[in-house]
Amino acid sequence: MDLDLGTVRAFVAVTEDHSFSEAATRLEISQQAVSKRIAKLESDLGMRLFYRSRNGAALTEDGRAFLHYARSLVGLADQALGVLRGRFRPLRVDVLDTRLASVELVRAFHSTAEDLHIDVTTSNGLRSARGTLARGSVDAAFVRVSGTLEEDLRYVPAYFDPVHLLISRDHPLADRRAVEVSRLAGSTVWMPGNAPGSEWAEFYGLLGAAFDLRIDATGPDFGWEHFVADIASGERLGFVGEGCRLPWHAGVVQIPVVDPVPVYPCSLLYHRQNHHPVLASLVDFVSERFRPLDPRRQWVPDADRAALAAGGR
């Protein structure tokens, strides 16, 4: 049998105040609610705890035997609540990668108040965020929403990151201010960071299928510095987000892709039962800064249009 802490707290209050009405005032509930809680506790324990005397509610022998343990239960619960409420814990935000646009959004939020404490973490995206959010290891995660989410997960659209072409300065397209996506048809785009099963690999796979591009994800993936250096040294093409802070390299140029502009959709994912005091402010901040998709100029896969329409708290 599991005891209801609310009924135990009512028992202690009635004992100390010798009155159901005084206990109701202390607990900020009605006298009827106190009576119901005591009746439930007596039913759960299978014994009578009070009898009425000239001085009000008095303990039975069983009530006196239970009182010590009841006070211990309530005291321990109050200590636990006090520790948790007073515990300093920064808001933990998963940005996927510290070079991505999500970091700038978190930095902008952090600058809105002096007393905001945030821990930034990185991960492998939606694949890990589902578990870390459920366990409370992180409070929020920037991901591309894909597939069916668990019932307790909520998200708000955060931003669209325009896709840019990354090429060597010696490439024939290097002098262009923008490159039409149709001009890239039939090309192979090298993206060694497209981990199998990741939401970004799925996005670029859908982009390739829509515009006749072959996405080459062969690795190994040695990191951003080596990726940029390899692009600079050869004929390979790469894709990056406009908001990605790439390592500088003199031999590389980054050119917007247009007509239409492919944009990578990123959302802020969180657990509906997470009550961190700063989380709601972050969700509001992200929602207020979000700019909707312009379907006349921008492109996302059909699946992302549906996900964006379904997003919200």
What does this entry look like structurally?
The protein has helices at residues 5-17, 20-27, 31-45, 61-86, 101-110, 126-135, 199-211, 224-232, 279-289, 302-310, and strands at 50-53, 56-59, 91-94, 118-121, 140-143, 153-168, 179-180, 188-190, 214-216, 238-241, 252-258, 261-271, 298-299. It is an alpha/beta fold. Strands 3, 4, 5, 6, 7, 10, 11, 12 and 13 form a 9-stranded mixed beta sheet that branches. The chain is built from 10 helices and 13 strands. The protein is elongated. The model has no long low-confidence stretch (mean pLDDT 92). Helix 7 (199-211) links the parallel strand 8 and strand 9 (214-216). Helix 1 crosses helix 2, helix 1 packs across helix 3 (31-45) and helix 1 crosses helix 4.
Percent of residues in beta strands: 15-25%
Radius of gyration: 29 Å
SSE ordering: HHHEEHEHEHEEEEHEHEEEHEH
Count of alpha and pi helical runs: 10
**Major β-sheet profile:** 9 strands, mixed
- Average pLDDT value? 92
Overall shape: elongated
First-last Cα distance: 36 Å
Poorly predicted regions are none
Number of strands: 13
Helix content: 25-40%
Structural class based on helices, strands and sheet pairing: alpha/beta
Protein name: LysR family transcriptional regulator
Pfam families: HTH_1 (PF00126), LysR_substrate (PF03466)
Organism: Nonomuraea harbinensis
Family: Belongs to the LysR transcriptional regulatory family.
